[in-house]
Design goal:
Blueprint lengths: L15 H9 L2 H11 L13 H13 L4 H8 L3 H16 L1
């Protein structure tokens, strides 16, 4: 790939996806992504953090006084799912 070639910094010359990445980050980052993933179809998960991390944070923040309603907004999960996670945490603590 173009690793040794001097990088043209005019973003108008980039394909749309690389242009969008460069606009959101910078052209060097877009080029690194190109070098690492060119030709590969990449799907990004809708959620940024692992499920284990989110569950632990929900339990910690709820114990610290954060409301379920606020947790649903913060993590973009349903109230029902948040309550289920909190319930599972109580069951694990009881063991």
């Amino acid at each position: 790939m173009m690793n040794n070639m001097k990088l043209n910094t005019n973003m108008e010359n980039l394909r749309d996806i690389y242009k969008e990445i460069a606009e959101k980050t910078d052209i060097d980052t877009a080029h690194k992504i190109y070098c690492a993933f060119a030709g590969v179809q990449v799907c990004f998960p809708k959620k940024f953090y692992t499920l284990e991390y989110v569950k632990s944070q929900i339990r910690i923040q709820y114990a610290a006084g954060t409301s379920i309603k606020e947790l649903t907004r913060r993590y973009n999960y349903s109230e029902r799912w948040i309550r289920k996670i909190l319930s599972e945490g109580r069951l694990e603590d009881a063991k």
